[in-house]
Amino acid sequence: MDGARSEGEALGFQVNTFISEGNDVKFKELVAQAVQQDYDGLIISHGKEDYAYDMIKPAIDKGIKVVTFDTVTKKKTRH
C-alpha cells in the first residue's frame, strides 16, 4: 500500500487509502462511501467475485475510473 500511495503522490495525485481488514461488509461500505465522495478514480484490491461487480458498477456508472487488482468482476447472469 505504501508503494501505491507514494507512486500516486509522485504523479501528482492526492491519495487516500481505506482498509477493510478482511471484512467484506466493511469493504463494500467503504467503496460505496468513496463513490459518494466523487473520487476521480479508485483502485480496488482483493474484492471477491460474488460481490465485486455489483460493488464497482455504481462507480463506473458515475464515470469514476476503476482499476482492480486480484478482483474478479464478472457480471453474473441469472437463469
Order of strands in the sheet with the most strands? Answer: 1-2
Largest sheet, strands/sense/barrel: 2 strands, parallel
The radius of gyration is 13 Å
Distance between the termini: 39 Å
Derived from helix and strand composition plus strand pairing, the structural class reads alpha+beta
Mean pLDDT across every amino acid position = 90
The strand count comes to 2
Provide the helix percentage.
40-55%
Number of helices: 3
Question: Which overall shape is indicated by the principal axes computed on the Cα atoms?
Answer: globular
- Helix/strand order, N-terminal first: HHEHE
- The fraction of residues assigned to DSSP E strands is 5-15%
Uncertain runs: none
Explain the layout of strands and helices.
Elements: H1 2-10, H2 24-36, E1 41-45, H3 49-61, E2 65-69
Parallel strand pairs: 1-2
Helix pairs in contact: 2-3
Q: Can you give a write-up of this model?
A:
The protein has 79 residues and is α+β, with helices and mostly antiparallel strands. Helix content is 44%, strand content 13%. It has three helices and two strands; from the N terminus they run ααβαβ. It has helices spanning 2-10, 24-36, 49-61, and strands at 41-45, 65-69. It has a two-stranded parallel ribbon. Helix 3 (49-61) links the parallel strand 1 and strand 2 (65-69). Helix 2 runs parallel beside helix 3 (49-61). The longest helix is centred in the middle third of the chain and has 13 residues, at 24-36. The radius of gyration is 13 Å and the shape is globular. The model has no long low-confidence stretch (mean pLDDT 90).
